Amino acid sequence: MPYHDRLQRYPALVSFVGQTGAGKSSLIRLLVELYSPDQASPQVQVVGSSRRADLPTSGDVHLYADLKTSQTKQPILYADCEDFDGGEREPSGVSLKNKKREANSEYQRTNSFARNIRRQHHTSEREILWATDTVKKICEYHVRHLYPRLIYTFSDVIVFVMKNPRVVESIVEQLLRWAADALETSSNQPVLPHAIIVLNAYDNTSDPELWDANNSTINLMERVSRAVHQSHNIRKCAESWKQKGRQIESV
To answer: InterPro entries attached here (predicted)?
Structure first.
């Protein structure tokens, strides 16, 4: 792609969120490798090991390029977000990175060099002013409340990965809560992202019709349609929209 065309590209962000062990990293790896040329060696997420199944795999947020669209005017970027409910233990990816940093401590960059890099890329560090107590300062709180709010605001698509079909209602409730937070705290967001709920590693003996995306969506919406009257948090959200002139009777 010519350099001039690269300056006029508008990436789309697809963010993967969900509980630890749901398979977000596996899905991103599958999507990246599926369309990669045979001779290419794309950078992909490391899938969790069965030896350390009790530990989250990745920490923070990592971006991966979709090779099918990487040379187009609207490339797609996959964001792999740190797992929910992973606790305060270091994810295996963070632990490995820290070990490498300690091993190469004699070759660390100077503070002035790091400041210069941040200045060139317009990056900075900010104190989280609302983290005023112990609960709000822990990593688990940031992963569950801060990351999703930022990711939801900037994403074109949110992919919520899960393995337990019985918690669908709570996931819908979580997505609505993020949408409400993003709508209230964002000053320039005309369109909210699309949402995809992925039921990963589902039982092969399930109804074959549910492998069709349209049938699965209809089935899901029917199962949670009355949640707007039964769930306190979803009902509260509906009442908020009712005050704005929008009557909501189902999910």
So the answer is: P-loop_NTPase (IPR027417)
22 CB neighbour count, 10 Å cutoff: 23
In the numeric block, the tokens 């509980």 are attached to 19
Helix (H, G, I), strand (E, B) or coil at 84: strand
Q: Express the helix, strand and coil content of the chain in percent, nearest 5 each.
A: 45, 15, 45
CA terminus-to-terminus distance, the chain: 44
At residue 78, φ and ψ (nearest 5 deg) are -100, 125
* Structure tokens that stand for 81 in this block: 């977000």
61 in a domain, yes or no?
Answer: yes
| DSSP codes of every residue in 175-186 | HHHHHHHHHHH-
d(C-alpha 194, C-alpha 182), whole Å: 14
Instruction: State the Cα angle at 168 between 30 and 229, rounded to 5°.
Output: 150
Beta pairing partners, 65: 77
Q: Are residues 160 and 197 in contact, defined by beta-carbon separation less than 8 angstroms?
A: yes
Q: Is residue 97 part of a domain?
A: yes
Residue 24 lies in a domain: yes
Total number of domains constituting the chain = 1
CATH number at residue 96: 3.40.50
Confidence of residue 77 (pLDDT cuts 50, 70, 90): very high
- The helix/strand/coil state of 196 is strand
Q: Are the beta carbons of 192 and 154 closer than 8 angstroms?
A: no
- CA dist., res. 88 & res. 134, Å (int): 13
Print the domain residue range for 150.
3-103+111-202
Q: What amino acid occupies position 111? A: N
pTM: predicted TM-score of the whole model, two decimal places: 0.72
Task: Tell me, yes or no, whether 84 lies in a domain.
Answer: yes
Tokens 């109804």, located at residue: 207
